Amino acid sequence: MHPLVQKNKEQYEKTLEFLKSDLGSLRTGRVAPSVVEKIKVESYGTVSELLQLAAIHTPEPQTIAIKPWDKNIVKDIERAIQSSDLNVNPVVDGDLIRLNFPPLTEERRKDLVKILHKKLEDSRVTLRSQREKNREDIIALEKAKEISEDEKFQALKDLDVMTKEYNDKIKVIGDQKEQEIMKV
Length: 184
Hints:
Blueprint: H1 3-6, H2 9-23, H3 34-37, E1 40-43, E2 46-49, H4 50-53, E3 54-60, E4 63-68, H5 74-83, E5 90-93, E6 96-100, H6 106-143, H7 149-182
Antiparallel strand pairs: 1-2, 3-4, 4-6, 5-6
Helix pairs in contact: 2-6, 2-7, 6-7
């Protein structure tokens, strides 16, 4: 792979990592802690993600248990969960908060697949815009006589190959997530 293209691979990797973390918040048949990790909780005058304030685990496939490290913020966490878009009521049991998720309906699964496809398309758009910027950089280097015309064509070819490779990775990730969502 051409060195000009290789140095831009990191941008593509970041796009893929962001997509993976973003898809973690989509609920599948089994509830994952990542569904609630990013919820913003206001406590002691600051806003933090739930992940930073509590231990989160799934004792059962449809249940998430949240144990705050500070017992004084249980009400703050409960309030944040109620105001989130999870559509689930927290059950407070002393210093433990339980979230019981109902099984997904067929309609909700289809809605989640639509959201999934939008997130996948957003990632593809990001890749395309990165590719265009990289193409412009390569063409500018050739115009400035820093690389030869042959090097430019090789770099552009390598860039297209790498972009296709990452688009294929996005498709694989999307297909796996769609199967998880639709699995009953």
